[in-house]
Structure formats: C-alpha cells, structure tokens
Amino acid sequence: MPHAPDEGFRAKGATPPSTETFESQVLSLVPALRRYSRSLAGSDSDGEDLLHDCVEKVLVRRGQWRGGNLRAWIFTIMTNLYRDRHRRSGLHPSVELDETLGLTAQELSADPLESTRLQQALNALIPEYRTVLMLVVIEEYGYQDVADMLAIPIGTVMSRLSRARRQMAVQLARNNIVSLRRPK
Amino acid sequence: MTNNRKTVTEDDLHAYVDDRLDEARKAEVELWLRDNPDATAEVRQWQAQAAALKTMFSAYATPREGDDELLKPAGSAGSSLPQWRKAALLAASLVLFLSGAAAGVFGGHLLGGPAPLESAGGLESLPGQSKTAFLVYASEKRHPVEVGADQEAHLVAWLGKRLDYRLVAPDLKPQGFSLVGGRLLPVNGKAGAMLMYEDTAGKRLTVLLGKNPENRETSFRFESANALETFYWIDGTIGYAVTGELSRERLQAVAEECYRQFES
C-alpha cells in the first residue's frame, strides 16, 4: 500500500488532526467518498454499494493505517475495491475507436440527455482510465499524488489520462450536440 | 512538466486543462496554443469534459442522513442491512439484468434528481424510430404518404389533433424541399406523425413527431448510421427527429429550419 504524502495534495478537506476518533474522521470524509464512489460506478445504487463496501473495509483494516493522509488511504482502498468488482463482474464494455468526428468546443450542459450521454461515455472507459480521470478531474489530486495512490509511474498516469480524455471525446462525438436556440 | 520554453508537450496540455501549471508556463502554453488550432480544439474539448464531469458529480459530495449508520461495525445490534442497502442491491441486480437491453439504464439516476430513465430511454429510441420510418416510407413509390400535400390544411389539422399539438408543416422551400405529405404512425407506442419532403431530384427526407411525456427542452443532437443522418431534439411536450440520406450540413440546415417553425 503506497503511502501518499501529506503535503502537496490539491484536494480540499485535509485530514483533521488525530484528536478526533477514527470513526468521526471517516464520517467527515463520507461526502467526498460518496462523490468518488459515484464517479466510478455506473449508477447511483452501484455507487452507494461501493461506498458501503469501502467503509466496511476501512473499519476492518483500521489497524493497518499508519497515520498520514487518511483521505488518500481510503481513496486507495476504494479504487482497489472498484477495480476488483469490475473484474469480477466482467463488466468490461468494449470500446471501439472510431475516427474522431470533427469536434468543436461544445458547451456540455446539465441537459438530462447530455448527462446520459456523458455517463455512457464514462461507462465505456476501462477502470484504469476512469480511475485516473476521476482522481484528477473530480477529486483534483495532483499527478504525482495519483501515481503514489495507484503505485504506478507518473508517466503511466499521464498516458492513462490522455487515453481517457481521447476515448471520452470519441464516445461523445458519436452523438454530437449542436447547440441551438430559437431566436426570440 | 518540462521547462523547455519552445516545446509544449501533451503533458503540458493536460496540466493546462487541469490548471496545474504555474503562471509563467501557463502563459507560454497559451501563446503556443494560438498557433496550434488543432491542439486548441482538443484542449477545449477536454475542458468541456472536465467541466461537465464536475457538474455531474458535485451534488454527491454532501452529507446524508444515516451516514453514521455506515460506521456501525458489522455484527453489532441492528446491523442487518439498512433499507437503502437492500434497495441498492435489488436495483443493482436489476441493472445487471437489464444492462444488455438498455445501455441507458447506466445513465439513469444522474445528479440525484428525479430519475430520467424512462424518458431518456424513450428518447434514445426516437432517432431509431425515425430511421425505420424513413427506410420504410421514403422508398415507397406509390403510397409514401396517407395524405398528400394537396390537402395540407387537412393533413396538419388531422395529425395535430391526434398529437394534441398545433402542428404546422414547415416550409422548407428555401432549403430546396417541398412537402410530399404525411401519415399517422406509432411513436413511443402513441399516436405520432411523419411528414415527408423531397427535392427536385426526388431525394426525400422525413420529419417524425412523437409525444414526449415530460415537458422539457434538450439540445439538438445527431446520429449517423451508414449513409443516413438523423437530427433529433425535444422541445416541450414533443420529440422531433429529421432523417435523410443527405450530407450532415444539409440535413442540419433543414432541422434548424424545422426547429424554428415548429412551436413548442
């Protein structure tokens, strides 16, 4: 288990000093963990399920925590759980790489269909790519922090990030959006 | 990140998108991007992705009632599965069961709001239904439509009544298409309408209208399958799809014109 450094994390919500109990520290991290689990999962229920398994595992393994950044430690546990579940369930959607359609900068909005499309593009990513994309974009961890958490070289982080972004772009381009509003 | 002032690497571009560069390097990358429109387009795409992902998941980072239940050690009193957990397991098994049939299921339950499952699933099929209608009717020589353009007033009144909507047949003459006529047909299991147009070379396109159970507005999107292009959108209580064997540019011009002329 790599121990992520305390310093250098860009993410907010740093671990409070250990005057609090372990449980209350974990509890304060639950909202962040919920977001991360949901960003990895294919649905709300799968996200809650992953969150629950993760907290359960954290409590069982509390003796293995050697201090340091609790948040990063738990995130690593969550990431491993997600990867294992994904392997077990065999839910590996295959991704064909078509040529990228001419892309223009699109305003991706909170449009319900747009969210569905985005979720489908995410679900098509393999777990290794999705994990890196989410840790960088949603959780705002630095590249080196992600490398430490996943125990991979930073070059691998960068190439996974790049592949995740390009595959997302290809998926999203499949059913591209043209913004259009009726003139008032 | 490299400190080479002349070369901007792909890693720099990611760091730029993720706002991990210091001000000086950021300025250099911005300068470089001005001369590299392809890279700029890609960077914009990545930025849009990142913004959309943040929007999508930010709502989940909130405490919820019952979070402390998560921390109750297994085996203690009342540690049987909480209600949500049972529901989640049931839902998860349903998702697995249905996943082959409906990829849209995975896209459901977004943003913690009301589940857009049914409507999104329904709309996904709109372009599919539009393509089928085009393939079936546009190739028809003798009876492509039930009511011809010579009875346009009757046509729109009749179909509009079945759709409960003030239907007009858009005037697409500036785009080179004149009305052939229309027919009643099922869309999403309810009464829907199809209008057909053709240009002077006999090239046809169809416009499909179906009831949309939820009143909402979406952006415009397209789907390509073989040589067929389909543009579709939802506006208020009606979902629309325009299909033709035309270039995307030409069909988009038609779809935009339809969008303007159809009232929400």
Question: What number of structural domains do the residues of chain B give?
Answer: 2
The value of Rg of chain B in angstroms is 25 Å
Q: Biggest sheet of chain B, open or closed, and with what strands and sense? A: 6 strands, antiparallel
- Which percent band covers the strand fraction of chain A? under 5%
Task: Count interface residues per chain for the largest interface.
Answer: A-B, 70 and 74 residues
- SSE pattern of chain B, N- to C-terminal: HHHHHEHEEEEEH
Q: What is the 3D shape of chain A?
A: globular
Ends apart, CA distance between termini of chain A:
59 Å
Strand order of the largest sheet of chain B: 1-2-3-4-6-5
CATH class of the largest domain in chain A, named Mainly Alpha
Description:
Chain A has 184 residues and is mainly alpha-helical. Helices cover 59% and strands 1% of the residues of chain A. Chain A folds into two domains: 11-91, Rna Polymerase Sigma Factor, Chain: A (Orthogonal Bundle), CATH 1.10.1740; 94-184, Orthogonal Bundle (Arc Repressor Mutant, subunit A), CATH 1.10.10. Chain A contains seven helices and one strand, in the order H-H-H-H-H-H-H-E. In chain B, strands 1-2-3-4-6-5 form a six-stranded antiparallel sheet. Chain B contains seven helices and six strands. Chain B has helices at residues 10-17, 23-34, 37-58, 83-99, 117-137, 152-163, 248-261; strands spanning 147-148, 178-187, 190-198, 204-217, 220-225, 228-244. Chain B folds into two domains: 10-58, no CATH class; 118-261, Phosphorylase Kinase, domain 1. In chain B, strand 3 and strand 4 (204-217) form a beta hairpin. The interface between A and B is large, with 70 and 74 residues. Strand 1 of chain A pairs antiparallel with strand 5 of chain B, so a sheet runs across the interface.
Keywords:
heterodimer, A: 184 residues, mainly alpha, Rna Polymerase Sigma Factor, Chain: A, Arc Repressor Mutant, subunit A, 2 domains, 7 helices, 1% strand, disordered N terminus, disordered C terminus, B: 264 residues, alpha+beta, Phosphorylase Kinase, domain 1, 6-stranded antiparallel β-sheet, 22% strand, flat
